[in-house]
UniProtKB/TrEMBL annotation, chains A, B:
Domain called LpxI N-terminal: residue spans: 3-132
Domain of life the protein comes from: Bacteria
LpxI C-terminal domain span: 136-272
Protein's UniProt name: DUF1009 domain-containing protein
Length: 276, 276
């Protein structure tokens, strides 16, 4: 089995991936960026590292026999303390520092390149836990209607259109009309707003209830930072009185597939992984 | 003076335009689409018409010496009752009915063409009341800072980007980050959401407060249906803790310029009509 390092940020994803690797008896190590502690209910051992000593993490991975790394969880841009930089990591700075001046995508690509240059392959969630990233298909008992599919088409166009603007990755469309677009405050805040305000704006109160659509940005580096939904998203979509959730096939994670699908089935919502 | 017909829909705009025409002693008549009564605090006489008898309205305008028409106020697509169609209007249906199947812009263009074909010139608000559609300049005592101008640049890009999607005409940007995008529920609902939820999402709580930006859609027919702001918008933007309001110069109406600017001055917000 390929020895794998999970580069962990905050949230539940690192622990979920570790569970999956345990199930398949894949050996792994968890490396956690200082200041961005993962949720760690099982108290797994973690190696802590800092960006200023990234080269030492590479050495440590070599010692441990790590062959591939997978990024999991959220981090924001860490501040860099010049006094903590070791000599070996200093040689990486001509690549790393300019990337810090750029957008998120450019920074992520530079970080991936550094790991690859150090001899590690960088893989996405789908390669170690494909069940977390559904391909085309309806995952639930409930199925999208023709109206729901038309709403999904419209929402996909809206989300693709805003993708280039780096604003958000989701939208709500009902009866062809865009009720909400995801922005900085995120999915939960948007769906709460639809529940409280926007759901009364549907043209026909008895018509199609609408869909929440989520997709990665066009051209997004899919080995890091895939958008995700979970059981909470289903609860929020139900509160917003939507018919279901549409995700881009192969581009959006289910953080806990069994619980997410069970939640949708118990509420009569559909979840459809849709090919773009 | 050119005899003018105001084609009135709901809201305050028809009355405001009538006030302006009174001030300049321009003769006018108000024609109101049945089912979409204007706000008429001064109890002005109105001619009522129905789409099914549009040709009779043209005849009436000819009798009254009307030379130009201006559309003011909001209407939604009226249902058409075949039994009410008069023979002369029936000849217009080959143009009108297909337009009813299309988007708002296409319908508006078809309606404008019908009036023009009947011999009336169709003019925009700016031609009878230019003070309602400000050109480039800051209208208030408060001025936008460099940060505010950068936020306006970003917001203009976002609004131009969503314009092609026919979603909305406004956005809120603070410190370079898009907090909200206007959708079907409109400006007031969006700004209320920023006030209640999104304003805590600013990266730096002490940094630039951000702007509300509003512009017409790219390619929008500017003789009908310009976006508008008013004193209420200023109150809402202040509640959302924004630094000011940016509108596209020549493309957005101030429904009541004096009251809107006074409201902004009393609250320390700027209003900037910005050249794209």
């Amino acid at each position: 089995m390929t020895k794998t390092a999970i580069i962990a940020g905050t949230g539940v994803l690192p622990g979920i991936l570790a569970d999956r690797l345990d199930e398949t008896n894949t050996p792994y190590v968890i490396a956690e960026l200082e200041g961005f502690a993962m949720e760690n209910p099982k108290g797994r051992p973690v190696e802590r590292f800092i960006v200023e000593r990234l080269a030492l993490l590479f050495d440590r991975f070599d010692d441990l026999g790590v062959e591939q790394v997978i990024f999991a969880g959220a981090v924001s841009r860490p501040a860099i303390d010049p006094e903590r930089i070791d000599p070996k990591t200093a040689t990486l700075l001509p690549v790393l520092l300019p990337a810090f001046q750029q957008g998120d995508d450019a920074l992520l690509r530079a970080v991936i390149a550094l790991f690859e240059d150090a001899g590690f392959s960088v893989v996405g969630v789908d390669s170690v836990a494909p069940e977390l990233v559904p391909g085309e298909g309806v995952l639930t008992t409930a199925q999208p209607s023709q109206d729901d599919k038309a709403d999904a088409d419209r929402a996909a166009k809206v989300v693709a259109g805003i993708g280039a603007l780096d604003v958000g990755q989701g939208a709500v469309v009902a009866q062809g009309l865009c009720l909400a677009i995801e922005t900085l405050p995120g999915t939960a805040a948007m769906l709460r707003w639809v529940a409280e305000v926007a759901k009364t704006c549907r043209a026909n109160p008895n018509g199609a209830k609408g869909v929440f659509f989520k997709a990665p940005k066009p051209g997004q580096e899919r080995r890091i930072d895939l958008p995700a939904i979970g059981p909470d998203t289903v609860v929020q979509a139900d509160a917003a009185d939507l018919a279901g959730i549409v995700i881009e096939a192969g581009g959006v994670m289910l953080l806990d597939p069994e619980a997410t699908i069970a939640e949708a089935n118990s509420r009569g919502l559909f979840i459809w992984a849709r090919t773009p």
